Amino acid sequence: MAQEFGGIWTAKKLAVLEDYLQFYTTALKDQPFILHYVDAFAGAGEHSPAGTADQHTLIPHENLIGSVETALALDHPFDHYHFNDIDPVLIAELERIKSKHSDKQIEICEKDANVFVPEFCNTMSPADRAVLLLDPFSTQLDWKTLTPVRNTEKIDLWLLFPISVITRMTPRDGNKTKPEWKQTLDRLLGTNDWEQALYKPVIQTNDLFDDNAVNTEQRINVDELENWVTNRLKELFSFVAKPVLLKNNNRPLFLFYFAVSNPSPNAWGLAQRATSYIVDKYNSG
């Protein structure tokens, strides 16, 4: 069952993911690790991009499907696959996909991703290593869910961050954000200090000596916002790569981040070189 949401950015996201998963499983295939692929918003396994009248009021819907089949089709498979989704219809489709791949160890879960991810992290043994994909439709992911990922020191993370949600929820001219959106922003960004961080003072005046000059606020631009989010991630993770920018009609839609939880430079040095190549390849395209 293919679902009809997404767009060109979906294909680009999946290409980035596939390149890294091929690198990861090839690099570690002879190492004494148990390799896990974890997809917390797994969807239905197939993708059919389309624009519809039902698209989200904040960003176009992105079903984020396709990652399941991408991971299952690697040259060097993972030892275990963990697919999670909260939608019973999509769970049924994942079960169908599981039945097609009886040669692989696949676990299907039906939980809120903010519950599923910490639970998985708590099961990891010293021999386990994992790649975790967090690519929610929009604002479903809580920032606090990233902490148990970091604490494992065993997970490589790919995170789809909805930059367009932030820009649409935070007025450019400094007008107040809608009260009903503040709680969402607090949860999504992991802090209630975002208003101070995302806005800067601007003095509006027609004359340098104008006593009637008005102090206003203006939201930082998209590049500055990307830097702020990147620095927030660097407070958690040992290595955070420059994100791949995913656009819709030439407007920034998502930032696709790679981060490593292992604090050892030896552990993330190779991944750093690989992701630098991948990010440069797709950011230039």
Detailed description of the structure:
β9 (244-248) and β10 form a beta hairpin. The protein is 39% helix and 20% strand. α4 (113-123) runs parallel beside α5 (146-152). Mean pLDDT is 85; it is low at 50-65. The chain is an alpha/beta fold and 285 residues long. The chain has one domain: Vaccinia Virus protein VP39 (Rossmann fold, 3-Layer(aba) Sandwich). The chain contains ten helices and ten strands. It starts with 7 loop residues before the first helix and ends with a helix. The radius of gyration is 20 Å and the shape is globular.
Task: Offer a concise description of the structure.
The protein has 285 residues and is α/β, with parallel strands linked by helices. The protein has helices at 8-27, 67-72, 88-100, 113-123, 146-152, 163-169, 179-189, 194-198, 222-234, 265-283; strands at 34-39, 80-84, 106-109, 128-134, 155-161, 199-204, 214-219, 239-240, 244-248, 251-260.
Total number of distinct structural domains = 1
CATH architecture: 3-Layer(aba) Sandwich
Question: Which radius of gyration do the C-alpha atoms yield?
Answer: 20 Å
Question: Beta-strand level of the residues, as a percent range?
Answer: 15-25%
Give the full name of the CATH homologous superfamily. Vaccinia Virus protein VP39
Class computed from helices, strands and strand pairing: alpha/beta
- Considering DSSP H and I runs of 4 or more, what fraction of the residues is helical? 25-40%
Assembly state: single chain
Shape annotation? globular
Order of helices and strands: HEHEHEHEHEHHHEEHEEEH
Q: What's the CATH class label?
A: Alpha Beta
Distance between the termini: 30 Å
CATH topology: Rossmann fold
- The count of strands amounts to 10
